[in-house]
Every structure is written in structure tokens, then in C-alpha cells.
């Protein structure tokens, strides 16, 4: 399996891997050992497209040498390019989209008998979480609370490849979290393209109907007992997930600034399990650009929301996504982005050069495209601002004792372990003893770098709870 793109795709891949395992396959790291290769693709930016076609080109020789090898392409690029994939890469056996992840193994079986097949469906209400799963980490899990996106940001391809926004029934979500907790998972990340509008569709469905037992299955007790408005249920959901016994950390990604409501901030401030970390995509600091993007907020509004959140959660870590070189972005617009970024003091930012996606509104604005050289210069300036505030944020942790979840051995230094703080910062610390990944520990921060922290272990506070299966090797 090779996965490109966001956590949605990572999560879909866990499900595809789960299905393949049920089909008797085992995971392997090398293409040379594989009987089946699944590429789960992304098309958010042009280089994601190019990467896939490059990868498929590389696999052509392998397929010629071993005609029994099956190659499947799924995910957002498959949803977008459809038949185009097999036209450009006829050696692909199966193409499936984002709405029929559950069909991956059936389609591979079909292709073995009847030859190559492309199956893309437009819409479905199937959530990946209904499928079997193979997760790499045992202590942390993603839970999809919503699929699709109802917004129409001018640059973004996601709504056209992931469909309309559909929320998963409340009680089903809580049921999944309970099961995960029983399996030893202690950290939950709620996933959606626009997580904080969770439930909007569900409550609209219930408007004007009699409240019943089924309503509370759909939208949860709190909403049913409340004033029955169409208010988002996201904050209720945060509280309910945190209440599940065994869950110690709750995260979510990504919320949309325009839908960030005071109730969500209240829940973050009041519920101890909800981590003090907010990933709030800014995209641009210029009101003109934000308006052209159809983001639905101004820079001041964004700053107000951040200030309000920080008043209630003084320790809040803040990360963001920013696009540089959106069509028509002037020097003055870009300066505003730098100003807002410096004022807000992001702890981390994912920065992207605007990439035109055919079919989106902004891709039509060819006359206003920003030359690549200018975008590259702007990117460099933005990077420096972000790195400065990020380092400052990290330095502010020196001397603090932080709770971390141990993730395992450090990649660079086998004497060191790495852990993740509640703020989602990575900490490296030396450890004489062996500590199982998924355990909780207290670490004193001694040093700050731009992208991570260094600390010393104080104590292990909770051992990992999940059971590790010892694989049965048949002779
Ligand atoms: N639903 C999420 C974001 C999904 S895409 C949200 O609204 O926050 C992740 C990020 O990719 C976006 O926040 C944006 O910064 C970036 N992105 C999306 N389309 C892009 C494009 N055409 N060019 C460059 N960056 C893009
Ligand atoms: Fe794309 Fe905007 Fe939807 Fe995010 S909210 S997925 S950026 S359209
Ligand atoms: Fe990419 Fe699809 Fe995610 S386009 S960013 S994998 S929703």
C-alpha cells in the first residue's frame, strides 16, 4: 500500500489494508515482494497528480516481468481522473474511487477473472469505519465523523472528489470510540474536511419532526434534550467522546474558522481530555484574497476567534494551513499574510504554493496567476516568519513538565525515544529503560528546536494498554 494525501486517505488505507488482510494477504514494504499493489491517491495539488503518474510509470516494468501482479489505484485522483488512469497507464488492473473503498478486494477478485476494471460511484453514505481495519499504531486511532465537504473554496478540488457533506450518526460514532477504547486505544482524532460543522445535516433532517429514541441515536442525548436548533453538535460530540472510559486524549482536524463556535472552545477549555491544540486553516491574511477564495471570514474575524480561544485556553497551541500565490495575490496581500501570521504566532504551519486544479473556480483565473518565481520568494519569506514563531513557541516550553505519549525509538538516534505532547509537539528524550509505544510519561523539557523539543524522562505514568498479538508463523 502506498498512501498519498491527508488523514482521510490514511484512514481509508487502514480500511483497505484491513480488507486485504481478511482476503488472506499480508503487508509487505517492498513492491518486489508484492502480489497486489494499492496506490491510494491524492489530487489536492498538481505535484500529487504527477507523483502518481511517475509511480505508475515505474511500476510498468514490474508488471511486464510479473503479469500476475495486480495494481489498483484508489483515492481522490482515481475519483477525478477515472478512465483517464487506465488510458495513461493501461497496466493498472483496478481503479476505484473514494465512495467504494469497501469494494477494493471484490474488484481485485473480479479483475483476476475478467480483466481490468474501473468502478467509480458518485456518492454513497458509506463511512470507512464500517470496514475492517489494520492500524499501524495501537494506542491512537482516527474516527471519521463526516465525509465530504459542502464548502466551495475557490482553489479546492476536495468537494468534487469527496462529495457532499454527510455526518455519521452520533451513537454509531460513540459506539466505535467505545470499541476502540476497549482495544486499548487512548487517543482519538476526529476526522472530517470540516469537522466543526458536524451534525448540520443531521439536525436539518430532524427539524419539525417529533423527537424520538431514533433522534438521539442520530444526534445524541444533549441535542435531543436541548432547544432542537440546527446548531452544530460538534461540541457535544467532543464531550461524549471524552467521556468514554479509557480515552485520555481527544483531537480533531480540520475545523473551518467560519464555523468555529464558542461552544467548541468551551468544550476544549472545560473537558480535560480534549487537547489544547487547534489546527485552524487561515489560507491568507488578506481580506481581498480570503473573499476571492470564498472562505467566509476576514483576517480580523480570524484573529478575534484565536484571541477568544486563547483567553479561555491560555496554553493553546495553534497550527494552520496557508496558501501562497493565490491568483491575483499582490505584494500588499502577501504582506498582510506575513503580518497576520506574525501576530497570531503560529506554532506550526503547512504552507503551499497555489496549484491550479482543473474544474475549480480559481483555475479559470489564468490572467491573474502569480509567477512561480514570485510565489517561491513569498514562500521563503513566510517560512522564515513561521519558523521564528514556531521556535519561540517551543522555547516557551523549556522548564515545563509535559505529558507525552511515547511513540517509539527516535529515527535519528536509537538511544532516544520520541513522544508527543498534548500540544502535538514532538519531544526526544533519552531512556535507559524500554517503554512500550502508547505508554504515557512525564518529560521535563530542557531544550527547544524549531521543529521539536528535547527533554528528560521524569516517570512513566501509564503503561500502554493494548495487547500485542504475536504473529503465528506457519511452517
Ligand atoms: N478541509 C480542510 C483542508 C483540506 S486540503 C480545510 O478546509 O481546512 C488541505 C490544505 O491544502 C488546505 O487547507 C489548503 O491550504 C491546501 N490546498 C488545497 N487546495 C490547494 C490548491 N489548489 N493549491 C495549494 N494548496 C491547496
Ligand atoms: Fe476544500 Fe474548503 Fe472544503 Fe476545506 S473547506 S475541503 S479547503 S472546499
Ligand atoms: Fe488529497 Fe483527497 Fe485528502 S485530494 S488532501 S487525499 S481529501
Task: Give an overview of the whole structure.
It is a single chain. By secondary structure, the chain is an alpha/beta fold. It has three domains: 2-119, Methylthiotransferase, N-terminal domain (Rossmann fold, 3-Layer(aba) Sandwich); 129-395, tm_1862 like domain (pyruvate-formate lyase- activating enzyme, Alpha-Beta Horseshoe); 401-462, OB fold (Dihydrolipoamide Acetyltransferase, E2P) (Beta Barrel). The protein is built from 16 helices and 18 strands. It has helices spanning 7-22, 46-65, 76-81, 83-88, 104-114, 158-162, 170-182, 200-206, 213-219, 221-225, 234-243, 262-270, 287-293, 299-312, 331-344, 372-395, and strands spanning 2-3, 36-41, 70-75, 94-96, 117-119, 140-144, 146-147, 166-167, 187-191, 249-253, 277-279, 317-324, 348-353, 401-409, 416-421, 426-430, 440-448, 453-462. The protein has a five-stranded parallel sheet with strand order 1-2-3-4-5, with helices on both faces. It has a five-stranded mixed β-barrel with strand order 14-15-16-18-17. The longest helix has 24 residues, at 372-395. The two termini are 26 Å apart. 43% of the residues are buried. The chain binds S-adenosyl-L-homocysteine (SAH), iron/sulfur cluster and FE3-S4 cluster. Residues 149, 151, 153, 156, 158-159, 193-194, 256 line the site of iron/sulfur cluster.
